[in-house]
Specification:
single chain, alpha/beta, Rossmann fold, seven-stranded mixed beta sheet, 16% strand, elongated
Length: 311
């Protein structure tokens, strides 16, 4: 029996309170060098989230419960969660089947990438106000590479007079997106479509005021060194080809034909910003601001795309 298994047995036999288990999990997470980025950024928040979720307690109310003693069956559930997170390196949202994202809660499992797009933050912080003066006039939106449907739902909520098409190449992802669309009772305003980028969207009755997309953009080199946690996510949702820009290139070249005359494209990509700027020298676009500066999201107008591609 290895040291970790023995440690889990000792914890199940000797620890009693929520405080005990959070302390134990933080120490063990640190010891085994877990990776974060699927809703939390550090071992304490991760441990607190997992314990509270496992016990069906509000995840934003820790203090009143810290010294509560746990029942045997509750301890067994927490130990199982520890095994999933530490031994198998399963990301926390896959363990709880829930992703908490900017005040929304979405169902997730290993059919979809865990939502973390900076586009939602940009939208809710009104960073698109220079391009969208009157949100109530946004009628038709496309969420390309929708995954679990989180961006489509947030946009349908924000642009309350809009119709949204949420498209993805992966039918498994669309099954999860349907769960979330139904959860938020938005089936009347969000249409789910299976499509390889724009391939199956040519029959859309209206061109789009807004296209947002968070396509796969991890380049081949980075795909080979991803932490184990990220290997649980669908590779089709991560890999952007050798350069990481293959789908980005396709989207830029084809978005023109799906935007209305005053439409805009908002696209999230990887951190190969310099390579992108060299490749698209002369394209008029704007990098958007994210709170921690890690996001690489730009906005470009249809007019700028027409001028660049000389269409």
């Amino acid at each position: 029996m290895d040291n970790l298994q023995q440690s889990l047995i000792d914890a199940s036999q000797n620890l009693q309170t929520i405080r005990d288990f959070i302390r134990f999990m933080v120490s063990t997470f640190e010891e085994h060098n877990l990776s974060y980025g699927h809703g939390t950024t550090n071992p304490y928040d991760e441990a607190a989230y997992l314990v509270l979720s496992t016990l069906n307690l509000p995840i934003d109310t820790l203090e009143p419960h810290l010294d509560a003693k746990l029942l045997d069956h509750e301890i067994k559930k927490i130990i199982k969660v520890c095994e999933q997170r530490i031994i198998h390196r399963i990301p926390a949202p896959y363990i709880t089947n829930e992703a908490n994202f900017l005040g929304y809660k979405f169902y997730v499992d290993e059919r979809v990438i865990i939502p973390r797009s900076y586009i939602a933050e940009i939208l809710l912080n009104n960073e698109l106000s220079d391009y969208i003066e009157h949100p109530e006039l946004i009628s038709n939106i496309l969420d390309l590479c929708t995954g679990n449907g989180s961006l489509a739902i947030i946009m349908a909520d924000y642009f309350s007079d809009s119709q949204v098409i949420a498209a993805d190449i992966d039918e498994n992802a669309l099954e999860v997106a349907e769960i979330n669309v139904n959860k938020y009772d938005m089936s009347a305003v969000i249409e789910l479509r299976q499509s390889n980028l724009f391939e199956n969207l040519t029959d859309c009755p209206n061109k789009f005021d807004l296209i947002v997309t968070n396509p796969p953009y991890v380049d081949a080199k980075r795909m080979n060194i991803l932490p184990q946690e990220y290997l649980h996510e669908p590779q089709i949702s991560l890999s952007g080809g050798e350069s990481g820009l293959e789908l980005v290139n396709d989207i830029l070249k084809n978005a023109i034909y799906f935007l209305n005359d005053f439409g805009i494209l908002v696209l999230e990509m990887g951190d190969n910003q310099e390579e992108f700027e060299q490749l698209y020298d002369g394209l008029e676009f704007t990098w958007l601001t994210t709170q921690n500066g890690d996001g690489f999201v730009f906005v470009v107008t249809k007019k700028a795309l027409i001028n660049y591609f000389k269409i």
